[in-house]
Automatic annotation (TrEMBL):
UniProt record, GO biological process: terpenoid biosynthetic process
A GO term, aspect molecular function: terpene synthase activity
Keyword terms, alphabetized: Lyase, Magnesium
Gene3D superfamilies attached to this UniProt entry: Farnesyl Diphosphate Synthase, Terpene synthase, N-terminal domain
Residue ranges occupied by any Terpene synthase N-terminal domain in the UniProt entry: 28-129, 160-221
UniProt-listed Pfam families: Terpene_synth
Name of the protein in its database record: Terpene synthase N-terminal domain-containing protein
Keyword RNA-binding: no
Keyword Cell division: no
Length: 238
């Protein structure tokens, strides 16, 4: 047999190869994207609409300066929608204004939801929310300490635990909060932003988790819909 007659590797016909089928379902999009033609006019129109909506939201943030509660909830909505990168300057200004506000001037004594929201937003944006005892001697810190406080937005004079008003004389959270599901959810989120040594926030997290877990059977929509995706509601089955 000559070299020209020797069989070569890989010369087998592809018809002889049997491939197993994975039985994949047909693509629901079909060939839509293969035949898709982009409309530049439609894109430009969408971009214009987006810019108009952004300007409208900026206007809403500015108009809410005189209404801290509205301002807080607007910023919280933008965060949950993942849109804060469009309004970084406006949100920073809003947080500075909230930090300078007296919380007792615009949040009711029994409003757990907005109190916890106020605390969480300030912590998330790098401000020292009013919680716990100050580590600096009151009115006896030097200019350097003052500069450090300004740099890190820390209020060295604040010794107020804003959650104290929701506790009884024994230092435990009041029993009437059990039915405030919206407030407990807000407290649950805020308690995750505790700093080292803030043991009371750890207690708040435990309290909120227990109350929310026990109340799952009596929740109404839409809060009940969050049960499957909220960590504090997760239970293990045997």
């Amino acid at each position: 047999m000559t070299s020209s007659e020797e069989p070569s590797m890989g010369s087998a016909s592809t018809d002889d190869i049997v491939r197993k089928s994975a039985n994949y379902h047909p693509n629901i999009w079909g060939d839509y994207f293969q035949n898709y033609t982009f409309d530049d006019v439609a894109l430009h129109t969408c971009e214009q609409e987006v810019e108009m909506m952004k300007e409208e939201v900026k206007k809403m943030l500015k108009e809410a300066k005189s209404e801290p509660l509205k301002q807080m909830n607007l910023v919280d909505s933008l965060q949950r929608l993942g849109l804060t990168y469009h309004f970084e300057q406006e949100i920073e200004e809003a947080m500075q204004e909230l930090h300078n506000h007296d919380i007792n001037a615009f949040i009711k004594t029994d409003d757990l939801y907005n109190t916890a929201l106020y605390f969480r937003l300030l912590r998330q944006h790098g401000y020292n929310a009013p919680y716990g005892m100050c580590i600096l001697p009151k009115k006896k810190f030097c200019d350097l300490c003052n500069l450090i406080c300004q740099k890190f937005k820390y209020n060295a004079f604040n010794e107020t635990d804003i959650f104290n008003k929701f506790k009884d004389e024994k230092g435990t959270f009041k029993s009437n909060l059990v039915g405030d599901i919206k407030g407990l959810l807000s407290l649950y989120e805020a308690a995750h932003l505790s700093l080292h040594g803030e043991d009371n926030l750890d207690d708040a997290l435990t309290y909120a988790t227990i109350c929310l877990t026990r109340s799952t059977e009596n929740l109404s929509y839409p809060i009940s819909h969050l049960q499957a995706s909220t960590a504090c509601f997760r239970t293990t089955t045997p």
